[in-house]
Amino acid sequence: MLEITAGKSTLHLNPPLMGAAGAFGFAGEYAKLIDLKLLGALVTNPISLKPRRAANGSRVVPIDSGVLIHTGLPNGGIYKMHRQYAAKWRASPTPIVIHLFGTADDMAECATFLEQQDQISGIELGIHDTLTARETRTVVGAVRARTQLPLLAKLPLYQAANLAAAAADGGADALVIAAPPRGTTRDPLSGQLVGGRLYGTWLKPLAMRLVGQLAPRLSLPIIGCGGVHHPDDVRDFFEAGGRAVQIDSVVWTRPEMVAAIAGALGGTELTRMAGALADEWRTAGEAAERRTTLIPAPPPPIIPSPPEF
User: Exposure check for the chain: N or C terminus, fewer CB within 10 A?
Assistant: First the structure.
């Protein structure tokens, strides 16, 4: 378990597994596929101060070993989103962390509003990849001045090493390493070039290297994010120095693996019996019970009597 404490509250990550921003919706819309109680916390889709419309054109473009996502970060703005989802956030089986993006002033205003709400367990700031270290310190500091909620700063992959210390100095309670990088590819359907965020298993070595570089230099906890699709990926991030992990694209490709990942973190690792179907994951205890109750022991062998002469 990881505890992230700010002025007035503590975010308890038990297990230290979070649903990443953009992967689970605004209030866990994937609950029909994934038991949200498996997560230590759920980060909402990105929310801005003012409403934003969805992007035009292609939204999802497949790439080698992953996918490019271009949504435009649509949302109704912080006040409308709160009205729409406050009841679901309050009833959520797992703590809710609001992901904010925008200017320093915009996010500070959002934080002022969220500080007054009782459904929220923390705030995650999306740090834009064009910000300098000084600007990052200003953004985080502006939000820190408005809230005592636990504050996470999600840093861009290719700037994380340069911005981590500034985010910590600004008052972040934890760092998320890292936000999906941006890229451009050609949509095979429309033939147009599309820009967006990149997801896939290939991101894990890049993010894990950053976690390993930053963890010894910083006192605040680091949450690894990028390419986590298997329990072994979690172990690797922890060995590199991470204190928790976020999961994203595995939810879209293999949602059944979320239970396996959570089980590994919680000490109830899932396994599959030989010959089982792809979705037949069970804990070791369940597997043992199944063997005991469903597969009776074979009867003792019948040894024929020796022939009489």
Answer: C
CA gap 265, 255 in Å, rounded: 16
| Distance separating alpha carbons of residues 106 and 133, to the nearest angstrom | 19
Q: Do 288 and 156 reside in the same domain of the chain? A: no
- Considering the domain architecture, whether residues 104 and 38 belong to the same structural domain is answered as yes
Number of domains in the chain: 2
Query: Is there a single domain that holds both residue 281 and residue 161?
Result: no
Which residues span the domain enclosing 59? 10-266
Same domain flag for 291 and 186: no
Looking at residue 1, what DSSP letter applies?
A: -
Q: Tell me, yes or no, whether 283 and 137 share the same domain.
A: no
> What token pair was written down for 78?
């912080």
Q: How far apart are CA 266 and CA 245, in angstroms?
A: 13
Calpha distance 111→147 (Å, rounded): 6
pLDDT digits (tens), the chain, 309 positions? 999 999 879 999 999 999 999 999 999 888 888 999 999 999 999 999 999 999 998 899 999 989 999 999 999 999 999 999 999 999 999 999 999 999 999 999 999 999 999 999 999 999 999 999 999 999 999 999 999 999 999 999 999 999 999 999 999 999 999 999 999 999 999 999 999 999 999 999 999 999 999 999 999 999 999 999 999 999 999 999 999 999 999 999 999 999 999 998 875 555 555 565 555 545 443 443 433 334 344 455 444 444 443
Residues 121 and 166 grouped into a single domain: yes
Rounded CA separation 35/30 (Å): 8
Instruction: State the sign of the Cα–Cα–Cα–Cα dihedral 130, 46, 100, 102.
Output: positive
**What is the sign, positive or negative, of the torsion defined by CA atoms of 195, 196, 197, 202?**
negative
Total number of residues shown for the chain: 309
Based on DSSP, count helices (H) and strands (E) in the chain, helices before strands: 9, 16
